Please model this.
Amino acid sequence: MARAPRPQGGPTVRTRILAVLLALTALALALAGATAYLLTYDHVDDRIDADLSESAQELQTLGASGVDPVTGDPFSSAEEVVIAAIQLDVPARHEGVLGLRTGKRPLVSQQAVEVHLQDDPELVAAVTPLLTSQTAVLRTIGTSTTDYRVLVAPVAPVTASGDPAALVLAYDRNAEHAETQAVFRGYLLVALAALVVTGVVGWLLAGRLLRPIRVLARTAQQIGESDLSARIPESGNDDLTHLTRAFNGMLDRLEGSFESQRRLLDDVGHELRTPLTIVRGHLELMDTADPADAAETRVLALDELDRMHRLVDDLVTLATVGQPDFVRPAPVELGRLTDDVLDKARTLGERTWLVDSRTDARTMADAQRLTQAWLQLAANAVKFSAPGSVVAIGSRTTPDGARVRLWVRDEGVGIGPDDLERIFDRFARGEHDGERREGSGLGLAIVAAIAEGHGGEVTVESAPGRGSTFAVVVPVLPVPDAGPDPAPGRAVPPVGRTAPTARSAPTPELPPRTAPDREGPAT
Ligand code: ADP
Model:
């Protein structure tokens, strides 16, 4: 299987999606982690401070009671208050305790204490001056050993001649925060694992979602390399499916247009070759010394050239089918158009011309194109009927008023069921009495294109030997109130049926008619 072409020199969409996904996930994880870490860190500090403040409170209560709760004796000095407080204190994890007294070594707890404050001379030196402070001091003291959160709670002398003492409680802050850090190291590992999982899942997911785009690119490349028949498989119902559908629709149209161009060229080549061969054959065989032969060949060559000219004109008309201005709608009075077409059709041949019916409806349509189609049908009716026979035209709105039928009825040779199927195809000609009449086979194709350009169709009813009725059926479109005056039905001559010189001449405006619906022979 061919691989989709890779963009040269730049990251793929898949890589970009993944990069954005990972960056966003990493940012979210980092923000969440950092916020939680800072909150936890503050919480630990708050807990330590609350614990130390409570201890200060307890010491104050003990000093105020004046009695040692263990022995029941009254305190005789501040030192005794501090000793009692040390004995009563149950140190927490990462907490140490000291008793400060004037001129003596600090008192230490006899209980199992985790942090031995007396072993850190820098701390002892830092707290000793606070012995004489009037109020409890809470501060952070950093030494070369660790960071302490320290409470120094002074106890005033019990007697006038006594010395002050102080209780020192301190938490090893670094040890307390180490636990938080351990938790967040675990978080970091989980976050990294989540990032890896997001990356893998995101990569697979992006690949899956972008698969139609890769197939699109591959198909586009195949089309460039081979043919237009490749299509992208459609599945699901999301944006990419719509894109796929639009792309396939575009390919359908492109393929259809290339195919019709190719067929047109084939047909044109084939159709033009015949008159060219005829002219060439006659010119080769012409006896230049014989004036009669030369004159005859000249007539024949001019006739064939006329035919080629008509053919080219018809092809040019067909080439404009599908272009936006092929049909230019304007308000049209269909009754007047019927009259105009009858007047023009009369010149096509010696027939008994009738009007079967005439509508007074108005619609938005291209009067020139409708006249062109109608006259084409009339020209065919003349071509396939005997002189003097009836050829009738008519116009009538359908009972629901939604559409209008414009028809030509003849009592000519009619069309066999086999031919009915294909006479609207380009270059299709029917057989009548076992032979083909002269014609390009483009007339009905043009009529059909005009009907379709109006959102309508061509219908035919025919029986061999009894005649045919061809009808252009188009929708009746409402005429805007403030629109221009209805088109007087400027005429376009029938395609391929009049001499090239007459066709290119400007068609004069026909006088307006006001006759009501009428039945029967035209006058
Ligand atoms: P052309 O008349 O140039 O061959 P058209 O496309 O106009 O091309 O017509 C195609 C074929 O349809 C004709 O060759 C003829 O067999 C058949 N056809 C068209 N109009 C009539 C008609 N009024 N009566 C009988 N046959 C018709």
Notes: Residues 272 and 308 are 7 Å apart (CA to CA). Residues 489-523 have pLDDT under 50 and may be disordered. The first helix runs from residue 13 to 65.
